[in-house]
Design a protein that fits this description.
Layout: H1 3-15, H2 45-61, H3 80-91, H4 102-115, H5 118-129, E1 135-138, E2 154-158, E3 161-168, E4 179-185, E5 196-202, E6 208-213, E7 222-233, E8 237-238, H6 244-262, H7 267-280, H8 286-310, H9 320-342, H10 358-370, H11 375-386
Parallel strand pairs: 1-4
Antiparallel strand pairs: 2-3, 3-7, 4-5, 5-8, 6-7
Helix pairs in contact: 1-3, 4-5, 4-6, 6-9, 7-8, 7-9, 8-9, 9-10, 9-11
């Protein structure tokens, strides 16, 4: 199928589910004025997830739930460029928030394609893409910081399965997820990167406790997850025993690819910033005009750079760290411009539509700069693995 044919088909299929944004009343002063790029809601999540599942089932019924995925697992067998075309059409329509699905679709599915068993792929991939199952990441720990391989969660043999004990933190969406991709230490005598194994953990299983973490934005999209004698069958192990680090690397590269490709650099957000300046500053001063021009250029550069990195398909390489850095830097710049334009209105709600809403982006940005690897760690990855500079002192 050509890209043009897919665009027409996607327009017809998606148009049958939801109106185009231009028809949904997205002019300045109309509709919801949130500008956050991450799901931060504490209320209404169940309703949003139900609507997202209805949409994904609609796509699946028309063969569009996984455009670039293998046909054997419910995909259309097309290219990543075809997937970009579908996203472009989706951006033109008033659709449910797909942030709930981001880890499941963009990170876990390609990770299972590379490291999962045939049974895991057949059982999970299509259900992850349709949001029948929602998954999250169980990697970070309170005592490990950015040194992910320094984790202390343990997995010990228990008959035909494993028994997990430990604590995870900053797990996005764990409270509404069904499944967690967890890394745990299975051999304490091996070097820290070598004695790790990954598992798919049922988050409704006995011994799993999830505590939401309230954030600066007022939302609670991150969670702490406590694992106390949680039994996991060996069939839920992903990859080889003590070979979990390669699974983690694959998932992180795909996560950074998703952040660079799907979060925060869309034209609609840039347009909102330009509209903000037009409605608050009359006329827009030269300094703000220069700042906005720089944002527009950087947004295009981020999109084109990400597309170039992903053009070859396959597993993303370490250069994908750059796309995440481009995204978070662009969002920081947009936040700064909004603060300059709004002045005190950025921190004090005047009730004017589309103004104080920018504070949610500003307050949520630190979380995005940590998620998927901190900016500092990613700069090390680019320096060492892409530019081949001398390694940072450990």
């Amino acid at each position: 199928m050509s890209e043009q044919d897919l665009r027409q088909r996607a327009t017809d299929v998606i148009g049958a589910f939801a109106p185009r944004r231009a028809d949904a009343g997205n002019a300045w002063g109309e509709g919801e004025d949130r500008v956050s790029v991450v799901a931060e809601r504490s209320e209404g999540e169940a309703e949003e997830i139900a609507e997202l599942r209805r949409y994904r089932a609609h796509l699946d019924a028309h063969g569009l739930a996984w455009v670039e995925g293998p046909a054997a697992y419910g995909g259309a067998g097309l290219t990543t460029r075809h997937a970009d075309v579908l996203r472009e059409v989706e951006a033109e329509h008033d659709l449910p928030d797909d942030a709930y699905l981001r880890f499941s679709a963009s990170t876990l599915c390609p990770t299972l394609l590379e490291h999962g068993t045939d049974e895991q792929r057949a059982r999970l991939l299509r259900r992850l893409r349709t949001a029948e199952i929602i998954a999250c990441q169980l990697y970070s720990e309170p005592g490990a910081g950015s040194d992910l391989a320094g984790l202390s969660t343990r997995a010990e043999r228990d008959g035909e399965g494993w028994r997990l004990n430990g604590q995870k933190v900053w797990s996005s969406g764990a409270h509404y997820s069904d499944l967690g991709l967890c890394i745990a230490r299975t051999d304490a005598d091996k070097p820290k990167h070598a004695g790790l194994t990954t598992f798919l953990v049922d988050l409704r299983a006995p011994g799993v406790e999830i505590r939401p973490i309230r954030q600066l934005t007022g939302g609670a999209s991150f969670d702490e997850v406590f694992l106390t004698d949680v039994h996991v069958p060996d069939s839920a192990r992903v990859g080889e025993v003590d070979g979990g680090w390669s699974v983690v690397v694959t998932s992180l590269l795909n996560e950074r690819s998703a952040i660079g490709r799907e979060v925060g650099v869309d034209a609609a957000l840039v347009d909102r910033l330009v509209d903000l300046a037009r409605h608050v500053q009359q006329p827009v001063d030269d300094r703000t005009r220069d700042q906005l021009a720089d944002v527009v250029v950087r947004a295009w550069a981020a999109q084109l750079t990400t597309a170039r990195f992903l053009d070859g398909g396959g597993t993303p390489g370490p250069e994908l760290a750059m796309t995440k850095l481009l995204t978070t830097d662009l969002l920081r710049q947009m936040s700064d411009v909004a603060a300059d334009v709004l002045g005190a209105g950025h921190v004090a709600d005047t009730g004017a539509w589309g103004t104080y809403a920018w504070s949610e982006l500003t307050l949520g940005l630190p979380g995005l700069r940590v998620g998927g690897g901190t900016d500092e760690i990613l700069k090390n990855a680019v320096g060492e693995r892409v530019l081949h500079l001398p390694k940072d002192a450990r």
